[in-house]
Design goal:
Blueprint (H helix, E strand, L loop, with lengths): L1 E7 L5 H28 L7 H8 L3 H4 L3 H18 L17 E5 L5 E3 L2 E4 L2 E4 L10 E8 L5 E8 L4 E2 L3 E7 L5 E3 L4 E2 L4 H14 L3 H29 E7 L3 H4 L5 H7 L1 H13 L1 E2 L2 E5 L27 E3 L6 E3 H17 L9
Helix pairs in contact: 1-4, 2-4, 5-6, 6-9
The structure holds zinc ion.
């Protein structure tokens, strides 16, 4: 499968150069848009990527852009247009609505990589080696974030036949802890956002937009890192991974919104899903978690806390079999049972 690895570009002087190239990229992109408009007005067929490349041929020197980048822009234009069935937005180089910088390139020939230096588009770029640069690079781009920092993105082919673990696990995504695992383990939510919230609020009140953005970005990076470590750890150990289908989009509109957004459920879920897909024989199952907190995982009696009024109940004792349960661990165990049923093509929720 294809994955994109992202590296922060180190060299302070490269930023200026990249921004210049990004403006030229916008020119090419908008040129493609103009051609698109013309062909529509003249009732001609839409230009293909090949047509666009032909029309931009020879503009490399004048634009100060590598021909490889011009071709990549034309190709991406055609792909975006065909996906949306209409002309993509114009790219804006200046002003408050400026598009974030983007400079794509193709990798028909292997990139020259030496340590933390990558040579592409006729120039050397130094990056922070947050992880080793992989071998099989298919394409790449430079892109800018909202604070103006540049990143090198490399799309790589990654083996998707890694061996799977042997365990089976049910995961209940929660608010108090990020997730409860059926083994009884709890994954604590580091709550970076809340810790930084006071700092962030202060920065916003003082109108320090730049600082606020900086705090935001740091928190986002820390959370992403934590979720990657957590999901890799889970996927390595297990062959069956079942996750409750919490609707985070719906919950994010309620009073609990802050926690939901903080927790990063959907990010964790999608990481678990694609990382499972890379492992041969491993399986990811989304299960219905409707009854997961109400049913006793020991005797399957519906004796647990119900509805909104019992939302605060953390521990309970089953009135049928007398086993005492931790709410979240019990839910994770039920999710595992449902997931096993799905994997075996049985009804997901056993008859209650
Ligand atoms: Zn019971």
């Amino acid at each position: 499968m294809l994955l994109t690895y992202r590296y922060r570009v180190k060299d302070a002087t490269a930023g200026k150069h990249l921004s210049g190239m990004a403006r030229a990229v916008n020119t090419v992109w908008n040129f493609c848009g103009g051609i698109q408009n013309d062909s529509r007005r003249l009732n001609r067929r839409w230009p293909s990527a090949f047509d666009l490349i032909g029309l931009t041929n020879g503009s490399s020197k004048e634009l100060g852009l590598h021909s490889d980048t011009i071709q990549a822009v034309c190709k991406q234009f055609a792909v975006s247009r065909d996906a949306a069935h209409r002309r993509p937005r114009w790219r804006v180089s200046r002003g408050p609505k400026r598009s974030l910088g983007w400079v794509p390139f193709q990798c028909d020939r292997p990139l020259k990589i030496a340590g933390d230096t990558v040579k592409c588009l006729g120039r050397r770029y130094r990056v922070w080696l947050s992880r080793p640069i992989p071998e099989d690079i298919r394409s790449g781009s430079f892109s800018q974030d909202t604070t103006g920092r540049w990143y090198l993105n490399l799309v790589c082919r990654v083996a998707d036949d890694l061996p799977a673990g042997t365990g089976e696990v049910g995961i209940d995504l929660g608010l108090n802890t990020l997730a409860a695992v059926s083994s009884g383990e709890k994954i604590r939510n580091p709550r970076h956002i809340r810790k930084a919230a006071t700092k962030l609020a202060r920065a916003q009140r003082a109108g320090r937009k730049k600082l606020a953005r900086k705090i935001h970005r740091k928190v986002a990076a820390q959370r992403r890192h934590f979720l990657h470590v957590t999901s890799t750890h889970i996927v390595r150990a297990n062959a069956l991974i079942c996750v409750g289908d919490v609707n985070s989009a719906a919950l994010a509109r309620t009073r609990m919104a802050k926690s939901v957004l903080d927790a990063g459920w959907s990010a964790l879920r999608s990481m678990l899903r694609y990382k499972t897909a890379m492992r041969h024989g491993a399986r990811f199952v989304d299960t219905n978690e409707r009854y997961s907190s109400q049913v006793c995982s020991g005797c399957h009696a519906v004796s647990g806390p119900r509805g909104l009024k019992d939302l605060g109940v953390r521990n309970w004792v089953c009135s049928e079999c007398g086993v005492s349960h931790d709410r979240d661990t019990n839910a994770a165990l039920n999710i595992l049972v449902s997931g096993r049923n799905v994997a075996l093509h049985r009804p997901e929720i056993p008859a209650l």
